[in-house]
Amino acid sequence: MLKNYLKIAWRSIKGGKLFAFIKIGGFAMGIAGCLLIALFIKNELGYDDHYQNKNRIYRVVMQGIMNGEQLKSVHFQRLFAETLQSTYPEIEKAGKINTSELFGAGRRALRVKGTTQNNFDEGFIYADQQVFEILELDLLEGSPENVLTNPGSIVMTSSKASKYFPDGNAVGQTVFLDDDTSKPYTVTGIIKENKEEKSHLDFGYLMALEDKNTSWTTTNYFTYVLVDGNTDIPALEKKMHLMLDQYFIPALTERGMGTDFMKVLKTLEYKLQPIMDIHLKSDIKMGDRLKHGDIGFVWLFAAIAGIVLLMAVINFVNLSTAKSANRAKEVGLRKTIGAYKGNLVGQFLTESIVFSLISFVIGVLLTWILLPTFNSIAGQDITIPWSQWWFLPTLLIAGLLVGMLAGLYPALYLSAFKPVNVLKGNLSIGAKSGKLRSSLVVFQFTTSVVLIIGTLIITKQMNFILDKKLGFDKEQVLMVQGTNLINNNIHTFKDRLLELPAIKSVSVSDYLPVDGTKRNGNTFRKAEGGNQELSVPAQIWKVDYDYINTLGLKVIKGREFSKEYTSDSSAIIINTAMAKELGFEDPLGKRINNGEEWTIVGVLDDFHFKSLKEDIAPLSLVIGNSSGIVSIKLNNGGSAGALKDIENIWQEYVTNQAFQYTFLDQEFAQMHDDVKRAGDIFNSFALFALFIACLGLFALSAFMVEQRKKEISIRLVLGAPFESIYKLLTLDFLKLIFLAILIAIPIGWYMMNRWLEDFAYKINVGWEVFCVAGGIALIIAVATISYQSIAAALIKPLKSLRTE
Amino acid sequence: MLLQLKNVFKWVNSGGQRVFLLKDINLTVEEGEFISVMGPSGSGKSTLLNVIGMLDSFDEGEYRFLDEPVHTLKEKHRANLYKQYIGFVFQSYHLLDDLTVQENLEMPLLYKKVGSSERKSLVADTLDRFNIVGKKDLFPAQLSGGQQQLVGVARALISSPKLVLADEPTGNLNSKQGEEIMELFKQLNNEGVTIIQVTHSEKNATYGSRIINLLDGRKI
What we know:
The complex is a heterodimer of chains A (804) and B (220).
Chain A: H1 2-15, H2 17-45, E1 57-66, E2 69-73, H3 78-87, E3 91-98, E4 106-112, E5 119-127, H4 129-134, E6 139-141, E7 153-157, H5 158-164, E8 174-177, E9 185-191, E10 205-208, E11 222-227, H6 233-239, H7 241-255, H8 259-267, E12 269-274, H9 275-278, H10 295-322, H11 324-336, H12 341-378, H13 391-415, H14 419-424, H15 429-467, E13 477-481, H16 490-499, E14 503-508, E15 521-526, E16 536-543, H17 547-551, E17 555-558, E18 571-575, H18 576-582, E19 591-593, E20 597-604, E21 619-623, E22 629-634, H19 639-653, E23 661-663, H20 664-671, H21 673-707, H22 709-717, H23 722-756, H24 767-793, H25 797-802
Parallel strand pairs in A: 5-10, 7-9, 16-21, 18-20
Antiparallel strand pairs in A: 1-2, 1-11, 1-12, 3-5, 3-11, 4-5, 4-8, 6-9, 7-10, 8-9, 13-22, 13-23, 14-22, 15-16, 15-19, 17-20, 18-21, 19-20
Helix pairs in contact in A: 1-2, 1-12, 2-10, 2-12, 2-21, 10-13, 10-15, 10-21, 12-13, 15-21, 15-23, 15-24, 21-22, 21-24, 23-24
Chain B: E1 3-14, E2 17-29, E3 34-38, H1 45-52, E4 60-65, E5 68-69, H2 75-85, E6 86-89, H3 101-111, H4 116-129, H5 145-157, E7 163-167, H6 175-190, E8 194-198, H7 202-205, E9 210-215, E10 218-219
Parallel strand pairs in B: 3-8, 3-9, 6-7, 7-8
Antiparallel strand pairs in B: 1-2, 1-4, 4-5, 9-10
């Protein structure tokens, strides 16, 4: 019997080629979309999943309330980790890392001793031996017991090692960072890399920590702990409050923080964040500046995957029942010659499973073809796990299940036909299942329109971000990296650059309003007058005299830094946000203190130095030397030739490292990469959904026309003009599309408002977005239906009447 | 006695009025009869045939088939009954387009769960008996009308029914093809198969042993 079912299924594919193509094609696309997203989700959920002790590793987080807002931090004191370990027996190990550019993490130039070439590279992190052990890092070479215990030790990943030591034998070699020969590093180990194992911490190098800071007020370290298996985590979190009472608060009191800040301290508490949560469930407020995923995004993706698959299944059901007119005769016949309902259900289910399995094969191929594109859109590095034992069986089972699910309704529907009705020829199929089919079309188009709305709003927000007046001028600014190699000659380098006609101004500072540059947070209080108990956390950036000019910042009160004032070594320029937090009516001339005392000489208009998701925080500028990056403002239109000239000058100063630069506007755009990605992904899946929906609509309209051929012919014979036939066939569908648009608008509006809530600076969603989204869907739908309607209105009536 | 209809009524409600399709039909059919049902269009011939074939229900009266009270049976039992004892032949052949001649013949046996080897021999016998061995791998569309109807009759007979119901079996055929089919029925009847046919043709009616005339759902 099964053999017979299979044979009939195959003939039905061969018989109705267009229908089979649309059924299988649409289904395969749905499967491909779903599979891509499933792979993405699996990848996102797979971070930090590979540790043996994954359920016992935590990152410490501190949280509290400040001015009514939640405050979160993952930065702790150097002594914090070791004090935790010695105080609480349930903490088996506590380790720390430092990822701050301020201390030399992040991007560095590396030179192997005995060679002359400096190589600009990234992924440098300071770490201690305990972290190395907590994160269960495996060494290819070197001794794991003390790989990071000695000062001057550096461990690199195997890919980095093979880059600099292609002949092997990396261990024991000496390297210099930023050409600093007074501080040699010895390679003590090579870390085994496994592409399958993903970690929230992306690094190429681990440098041994040498910080001797014993202060309880400076916080620069992420702290990780490995706890005993039986630990009651909430209880431990509570017990850890001791750290605040015994060390942190006394130290701050001694240093003399304002009483307002002491209030904040009372709200502080420690939390332990499971290591597997770090990638997807970290709050931007924690300020760890790592590249994170977003659990909300994962959920959204899962929803899209489900919907895409559902749409494909709906097409399948829709087309199967639409074809029922043709199948009805067969059903009736089979029943009169002795078929039971069960036989017919079996036959139709087999057919749908065959369709499903073929679709799965094509869908997987499609996934394989689309994966590189998807990877570049989503910024991922996903591979299809062909070789994993579960992959192919899972697909097979999924194919069977989906086939059964999609086939169940058509099977029950079709097999229920009464033979006498069918054979008498008075079966009106269209009317009976019309409602169901209509609502399925509405669902598909609602989904499509919601996705289009999403795409439009995300694109609009992205354009808003890129075009927004940021308070600094990001156009035509070149950032030359690694200029600390120039050392003391930085001023003559700057002068040489200024001689070039294409260059407007040059500033030396590696504090810039884009990610990946230095940050330095501090706490300020007033040194005189007003409420001296008030503490304001703020950035303090070391810049040079030309910084404000080069970045196009605006001083709205007071003045810029100037060499004419010798007192400017203790001058500070603050932004408006900081002036407001400090509560100054007229900040000029006021003195503030962060351990050192500064006099305010100017107030800057606020400018964005973080992602637009965040409000502009207090920030101050002081004169200082921080020479990792040189920013060059070019005159309009001069960049092409200027680049060559700048490179020539660079080579005069630095012979052993390649010229490295980026543009400020590109770096800024990259900071909002996640938004752009979200837009691209929405865009692709909106296309996907729309395509599947259109495929269904096309087939359905073809079916409708087929069904009404006789009616159309009679109308034509009676003299109906072309337009009236066209309208007759198109209007019914258009009503459905309009309904879908009406339903989609509130859903899209609600969803995208939720998304926009993440941004401190955002667009207003206007009605025009919905008009455009609706318009797009409508035009595409009309085009799809018209193909069939026009063809129908042009048929030769006699031909279809004669065959009756 | 093969079957008996007693005071059978069938009606539909149209515009508040009862329109009778069958009115007070009384009919007894003995095994081995060859009955022709005649009457003008709309007189209820096909309805009567469908009621006898248990494809259609009726509203009032009694129907006994092989002493089973059909009117009290559940749908499923009724279906079992006709599947076991009745074969259908249609005016427009109603072969399964997707299946070859051989597969069309095999289908009823498959549904009856006849074993593979027995199925094969039955199909081979039937092909042989109806002289269509050479056509066994062709699809219906590749056959002439007469050949298709031949397959239709063959399919109706393959599971050895007691009763064959034929609804204008020659309606779509030319006279020569029609004659052949009627000869075939005659021969089958001689072999003991009971046949009830609906026909418009006086000539075809004469092949039968008894004629029933219908007018407006009533036997006259």
